[in-house]
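Dear Dr. H.,

I hope your travels went smoothly. While you were away I took the liberty of generating a structure for the chain from your last submission, since the lab meeting agenda had it listed for discussion. I wanted you to have the full record in hand beforehand rather than looking at slides cold. The sequence, exactly as received, is reproduced here:
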Amino acid sequence: MTAFKHLPAQIADRLIGVRIAARRAMAGSLQGAHRSNRHGASVEFAEYRDYTPGDAPNLIDWSVYARTDRYLVRRFEEETNLVGTVLVDSSQSMAWRGLGPCTKLDYACSLAAAAMYVLVDQGDRAGLATFAATVIERHAAAGSASSLKPMLAALDLVAGRGRGDIGAALSAAAPTLPRRSLAIVISDCLQPPASVATGVRRLHHDGHDVRVWHVVDRGELTLAQTGLVEAVDAESGERIEVDCDELREAYRRAAAAHLDEIRRACLGAGADYRLVHTDTPIDSALRSMA
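The corresponding predicted structure, in token form, is as follows:
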């Protein structure tokens, strides 16, 4: 595969054997690794049942009728390819780097590239969307290594800009996703928990299997600076002077409380929630969240 910034060969090699499975019944009709909740003409036989008025005659197993004089219908477990869309928050706050080896956005893009690679490698399909206050760029799901390349190239060009609104963005993205699919949201979730819950709930309500991967730089969890410093809001540009020594403990408590509120908001809205720090190796993070 062509070299990409967010999916170098050494990372791809370490993803061998990693699998992302659906947690909710998916829709579809192609042979794959994910069980559907529907029965129909497919590749895996499940059981026989008695013919009932209204069943199509072509569902009857006539060879069984010839042997037993019974009208039996073959039932099949339909299997389906998983279709996953990775939604990456590219708002301005994601461009921040503190104690981690890269910005939150670079880490999110690397995590997205790895997730898409795993989905395609396991025989499923993967799509991509970036968002801030609304959806910025969207790529239809791809099912092969060659068709994945444009999305990996697009991730290499993503830049953090604009104010975020995760509730509005995910609500706007929901109608564009394949029916009953996997939706992986990668964000720093620097939004009111209610807004995060609104977006997640919309995806879950539409039948999607929603995962929220909350990307945090450890530098966000404590105030490492001392004395008076000028704090600048990454998205609004608002500036304020603060005394770090005076606020350190209150800040630590507020940061911990925010993480807990986001976790509860996501779980309450029907998503699987995972916190990941930007100093965690990509393959290790994906293995723990897949």
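Two observations you may find useful: Residues 34-80 form one domain. The chain is about 35% helix and 25% strand.

With kind regards,
E. W.
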